[in-house]
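DM between two lab members

TW: hey, do you still have the choline-phosphate cytidylyltransferase entry open?
JB: yeah, one sec
JB: this one, 345 aa:
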Amino acid sequence: MPVLTTDAESETGIPKSLSNEPPSETMEEIEHTCPQPRLTLTAPAPFADESSCQCQAPHEKLTVAQARLGTPVDRPVRVYADGIFDLFHSGHARALMQAKTLFPNSYLLVGVCSDDLTHKFKGFTVMNEAERYEALRHCRYVDEVIRDAPWTLTPEFLEKHKIDFVAHDDIPYSSAGSDDVYKHIKEAGMFVPTQRTEGISTSDIITRIVRDYDVYARRNLQRGYTAKELNVSFINEKKYRFQNQVDKMKEKVKNVEERSKEFVNRVEEKSHDLIQKWEEKSREFIGNFLELFGPDGAWEAHYELSPDWIQFSSFVVEPPWKVQPKQIGEPASPGPAAFAWVAHL
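TW: and the structure you got?
JB:
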């Protein structure tokens, strides 16, 4: 989209391309060729020295209000955020997300300080500069990465990269002999604040590692790292390896106990099932027996008892051969019931 050259600014300093006044027909128009925000995430963000802004159109100064209203498509608001970004974590990503979404049409440049500057002003890092550069390139909110970024922003650096605004949390950042390295940026009206994410920082992560040093040293020894690589003494190496063996034995004992509990539980479940089934079958057996041989059972209803059968039923008290004669001198006759009783035996 065409914009006007610097001689076409209004009296208030606002470019007429962003004001309500119609542009003069005699004024020269120059197309912006600034790099556009990334629309695809199939490739990492480029480095600044690989895709520097070669736009010939003048870079008009914007106010925060103008940037929030929106700028032409070919003139994105160039927002700059810098840092060390060691052990890149969600707090870093959230800060960059805020910087990217400050304005409707933003192009986010991220400056990463080198190892030399960081070690000089802040201290040793876990990741080296190449690793930190590469981590930033793969953040979805980043459009461009500036390697070896300056510790303090100079007018020359801001002009070289055509930076409109600098995004950072509003807490005064004292470093390099200054109470606030962003003081001159704030005074120029180019500072836009972001919010820190509580509970997560590079220092917090390092503190966790130092606090649980023994745990991580044992973990890496178990994974094949040498004591020399971990900077562990001979005595500590033997101690850690012994602790690892003890932990393995504890784990085995724990597994055996769990299996034993599972086995006992299965046996108990099966025994309960067997007892329940036995009770059900016993009740069923008793019920069937009573239906067949009870006082009102099917057996009694099916057979009409004869006198001889009645006599047979009395064998429980007296066997048939002990039946007394009906008259004196008359031998006792066992009768058919006696034969039936003997046959039953």
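TW: got it. Confidence is low (pLDDT under 50) at residues 1-28, 337-345. Residues 141 and 238 are 47 Å apart (CA to CA).
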